[in-house]
Amino acid sequence: MKLLKTNGFILMTVLSLMAIAWLVYPKVTMIPIPKMPNDSTAEFSATRAYEHVKHLAQKIGPRPAGSKSELAAAQYISYVLNQNGWRYTIIL
Questions:
Q1: What is the pLDDT of residues 2-46, one digit of tens each?
Q2: How far is the C-alpha of 46 from the C-alpha of 49, rounded, in Å?
Q3: Alpha carbon 30 to chain centroid, angstroms
Q4: d(CA 84, CA 37)
Q5: pTM passes above 0.70
Q6: Using alpha carbons only, how large is the chain's radius of gyration in Å?
Q7: Which of 12, 42, 86, 88 has the smallest CB count inside 10 Å?
Q8: pLDDT above 70 covers what percent of the chain?
Q9: Per-residue pLDDT, 57
Q10: Taking the domains of the chain in order of start, what are their residue ranges?
Q11: Mean pLDDT of all residues belonging to the chain
Q12: What are the C-alpha distances in Å from 75 to residues 38, 69, 72?
């Protein structure tokens, strides 16, 4: 009889904890982010991405902080973002 009470208590405790977790766990809703008119992310190209990386690595080269090559890389990235219709703010 004592074993039956213990098993019943454990079962009720486990079920209660599962019910509480189900009630408390936030319900996640996926909401699509509206696309901007000039949204170029839908047109991702691995080839173009590789070309940008190649330009930064080979033509601009190492970019130590405060160097001219760091400024050149920032200007290149800014140019590419502007060409693709991105708006951004530089935070220093």
A1: 666 788 888 888 888 887 776 766 655 555 555 555 555 567 889
A2: 5
A3: 15
A4: 11
A5: no
A6: 28
A7: 42
A8: 71
A9: 93
A10: 2-83
A11: 78
A12: 21, 10, 5
Distance CA 62, CA 56 (A): 8
Read off the amino acid at residue 44: F
- Cα 77 to the center of its chain, rounded Å: 19
Question: Which residue has tokens 């920032």?
Answer: 74
**Entry field: residues in the chain:** 92
Cβ-proximal residues to 71 (8 Å cutoff; 6+ apart), any chain: none
Residue 37 identity (one-letter amino acid): P
CA dist 43 and 46 (Å) reads 10
Q: Are 86 and 37 in contact (CB under 8 A)?
A: no
- The identity of residue 20, as a single letter, is I
Q: Tell me, what amino acid is at 61?
A: G
The distance from CA 16 to its chain's CA centroid, rounded to whole angstroms, is 36
Residue 17 in tokens: 């904890």
Tell me which residue of 58, 89, 91, 92 sits closest to 73, measured CA to CA: 58
